[in-house]
C-alpha cells in the first residue's frame, strides 16, 4: 500500500466523522458568509481541534477569502486544507546528526510507547543505522520483556537491568554500550507512570543529567507518545510533560482508531510542539514520519493537490522503496 493510501485509510474514522460534516457544510452553502464560518468553527471544535485553534483557522480563512475575493464555498474548502497544512509545518525532522544521538521516549502507560519504540528502531535499522535500546522503564517487569521482543524483531541490541533498578543507571550503561558498539542512535524507554507524579519528573531530570555528563555533545530528542483516541486529554498530558521534560516532539498513536484526528492541530498550535510521527495502524510500517500536506490532504479524501504538493508523486516514491516490510 502506498504511503498516502495508508495515511488516508488510517484517517478514515476522522474523515467520516466531523471532517465529513465539514465537507457537507461546504456543499450545503451556496455563498460565503459569516454563518458559514460560524458553523465551520463549531465543527472544528467538535473535532478536537480546540477552541483557540479553531478560531485562528477561521480568522485565517476570512483573511484569505477577503484577499482572494473567493465567493464559492468549495474554494473555501480548498483554502481550509491549505491553511491546515500551513499551520502544521515546522520542525518535523528528527535531529540525529551525532554518533551516538539519544532519543528519550516518554509517555503514560497504555499509549503504545513500547510498540512505538519497536517501530522506530525498525525504521532506523532499515535506514542503515545501528541502534541500541536502553530499557529504562524498570518500574514494570513486563515493559522490559516487551521491549526485548521488539528489540529482537527490529534486530537491535538492548541494554537492561532487573525490575526496580535505577533507570538512570540503565541509561548510563546504554550510553557506554552505544559508544563501545559505535551505534548511531541510543533509544531510551522511560517509566510510564502518571504524568502528574513528581517522582517521575525527578527521574527524567536524573536521566538527563546522566546524558549531560556522559554524552554532553550528542544530539538529543525527547519524544512524547500520546494516544489520539483520548482527544483533549492528550493535550493535557502534553502540557504537563512539556516544561518538565523539555519535549522536542510528539508521536501520536492510534489515529486509525479514532475520529479525533483534529487533535494534531491543537497540539501543534496550542503547545508549539511539533508532531514528528503518527501511528495509523498495527503493522511495523504504520508509524509514519509526519507530513503536514499529506495529513491535510488525507483529511479530505478528494483533495489531490495542495500548492506544489502532488499526491501521485509521493505515492510513486513509496512504490520505488519496495512497499511494506515483511517482518
* Helix/strand class: alpha/beta
> Percent range for helical residues?
40-55%
Q: Give start-end ranges of low-pLDDT stretches.
A: 303-327
- The end-to-end span amounts to 15 Å
The tally of beta strands, per DSSP, is 10
Strand order of the largest sheet: 3-2-4-1-5-6-7-8
How would you state the average pLDDT, rounded?
84
What characteristic shape results from the CA principal axes? elongated
Approximately what portion of the residues adopt beta-strand conformation? Answer: 5-15%
Element order, helices and strands? HHHHHEHEHEHEHEHEHEEHEEH
User: In this structure, how is the largest beta sheet organized?
Assistant: 8 strands, mixed
Number of helices: 13
Key descriptive features of the protein:
327 residues, alpha/beta, 8-stranded mixed beta sheet, 13 helices
Task: Characterise the protein shown here.
This protein has 327 residues and is an alpha/beta fold. The chain has 13 helices and ten strands. Strands 3-2-4-1-5-6-7-8 form an eight-stranded mixed β-sheet, sandwiched between helices. A hairpin with a 7-residue loop joins strand 7 (275-279) and strand 8 (287-289). Helix 1 (3-10) crosses helix 12 and helix 5 (73-88) packs antiparallel against helix 12 (292-299). The longest helix has 18 residues, at 51-68. The two termini are 15 Å apart. The model is unreliable at 303-327 (pLDDT under 50).
Amino acid at each position: 500500500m502506498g504511503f498516502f493510501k495508508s495515511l488516508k485509510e488510517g484517517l478514515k474514522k476522522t474523515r467520516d466523522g466531523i471532517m465529513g460534516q465539514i465537507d457537507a457544510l461546504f456543499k450545503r452553502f451556496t455563498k460565503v458568509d459569516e454563518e458559514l464560518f460560524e458553523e465551520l468553527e463549531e465543527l472544528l471544535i467538535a473535532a478536537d481541534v480546540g477552541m483557540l485553534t479553531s478560531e485562528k483557522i477561521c480568522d485565517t480563512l476570512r483573511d484569505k477569502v477577503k484577499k482572494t475575493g473567493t465567493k464559492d464555498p468549495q474554494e473555501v474548502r480548498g483554502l481550509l486544507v491549505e491553511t491546515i497544512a500551513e499551520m502544521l509545518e515546522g520542525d518535523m525532522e528528527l535531529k540525529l546528526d551525532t554518533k551516538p544521538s539519544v532519543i528519550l521516549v516518554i509517555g503514560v502507560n497504555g499509549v503504545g510507547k513500547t510498540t512505538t519504540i519497536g517501530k522506530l528502531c525498525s525504521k532506523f535499522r532499515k535506514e542503515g543505522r545501528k541502534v541500541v535500546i536502553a530499557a529504562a522503564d524498570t518500574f514494570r517487569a513486563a515493559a522490559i520483556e516487551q521491549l526485548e521482543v521488539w528489540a529482537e524483531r527490529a534486530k537491535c541490541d538492548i541494554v537492561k537491568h532487573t525490575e526496580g533498578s535505577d533507570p538512570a543507571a540503565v541509561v548510563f550503561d546504554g550510553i557506554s554500550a552505544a559508544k563501545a558498539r559505535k551505534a548511531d542512535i541510543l533509544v531510551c524507554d522511560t517509566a510510564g507512570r502518571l504524568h502528574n507524579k513528581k517522582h517521575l519528573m525527578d527521574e527524567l531530570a536524573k536521566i538527563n543529567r546522566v546524558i549531560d555528563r556522559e554524552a554532553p555533545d550528542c544530539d538529543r530528542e525527547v519524544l512524547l507518545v500520546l494516544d489520539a483516541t483520548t482527544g483533549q486529554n492528550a493535550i493535557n498530558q502534553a502540557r504537563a510533560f512539556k516544561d518538565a521534560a523539555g519535549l522536542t516532539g510528539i508521536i501520536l498513536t492510534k489515529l486509525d482508531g479514532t475520529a479525533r484526528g483534529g487533535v494534531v492541530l491543537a497540539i501543534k498550535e496550542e503547545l508549539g510542539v511539533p508532531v514528528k510521527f503518527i501511528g495509523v495502524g498495527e503493522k511495523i510500517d504504520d508509524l509514519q514520519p509526519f507530513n503536514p500536506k499529506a495529513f491535510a490532504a488525507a483529511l479530505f479524501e478528494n483533495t489531490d493537490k495542495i500548492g506544489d504538493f502532488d499526491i501521485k508523486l509521493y505515492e510513486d516514491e513509496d512504490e520505488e522503496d519496495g512497499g511494506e516490510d515483511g517482518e
